[in-house]
Design a protein that fits this description.
Blueprint: E1 3-7, H1 12-26, E2 31-37, H2 48-66, E3 70-76, H3 85-98, E4 102-106, H4 113-129, E5 146-150, E6 161-164, H5 169-176, H6 180-183, H7 188-203, E7 209-215
Helix pairs in contact: 1-5, 2-5, 3-4
The structure holds zinc ion.
Residues 8-9, 12, 112, 115, 152 line the site of zinc ion (ZN).
């Protein structure tokens, strides 16, 4: 089973579905993470160029800890992610190349514009990747069976799938803590632990849980 995670910024993947990613990796599922931006607006302590380098390095360190197979950096400008042909074609090509059975993407009501744009790009790419259209795209049509939308700091209103990540929580936190450029100003590791604990308590499915909204490809408009 191939897994693809689409993240607006480095660390969104870990916060939104890091525990579920660890479960896939433990089960031997090849997993690719693609970052729409490299988070170059995420700190005033560095220039954009330096921060790009720092955050990509942090993402690689986290990936090494978890054993992630491949990271792809699309390097759009952080905070200015565009819904355009270039990004759409790159995602369609990626879906057709990796042929994932499961894809993880942000949800459509996330307050962060880059997250909502990632949702719009990913869902349209998923729809187009499945059909015999668009000569500018590479590969042969591929339809993804399962689309799971994760939550970062805007919680989901509709939950259709819950993953108990209790056994993976310490490793998830260790991976998030590799993003030192972010953690030093805001305790995202603590916030992530609290969100997963809140989900664990309110769903009754485990000490720490990740929640998702499942989408059906036929219902994406
Ligand atoms: Zn983000």
């Amino acid at each position: 089973m191939n897994i693809l995670v689409v993240a607006p910024h480095p660390d969104d993947d870990l916060i939104g579905c890091g525990g579920s990613m660890i479960r896939h990796l433990r089960n031997g599922h090849p997993l690719t993470v693609t970052y729409m931006t490299s988070g170059d607006a995420g700190s005033l302590r560095h220039t954009k160029e330096n921060l790009t380098e720092i955050r990509e390095r942090e993402a690689r360190q986290a990936a090494k800890i978890l054993g992630i197979n491949e990271l792809i950096f699309l390097r759009n400008a952080d905070g200015y992610l565009q819904y355009n042909q270039n990004n759409l074609v790159r995602l369609i090509n990626l879906i057709r190349e990796k042929k994932p059975e499961i894809i993880y993407i942000p949800h459509h009501r996330d307050k962060h514009r880059d997250h909502r744009t990632t949702y719009a790009l990913a869902t349209e790419a998923l729809r187009r990747a499945g059909g015999p259209w668009f000569q500018e795209c590479e590969g042969s049509p591929w339809t993804v069976d399962t689309i799971l939308c994760y939550e970062v700091w805007t919680t989901l209103q509709e939950i259709s799938y819950v993953e108990n990540i209790t056994e993976f929580m310490p490793l998830k936190l260790e991976a998030i803590r590799q993003h030192q450029s972010q953690i030093r100003d805001i305790a995202y590791d603590e916030a992530s632990q609290c969100l997963n604990r809140y989900r664990g308590i309110t769903t009754g499915r485990g000490e720490y849980c990740e929640c998702f909204q499942a989408l059906s490809i036929g219902k994406i408009s």
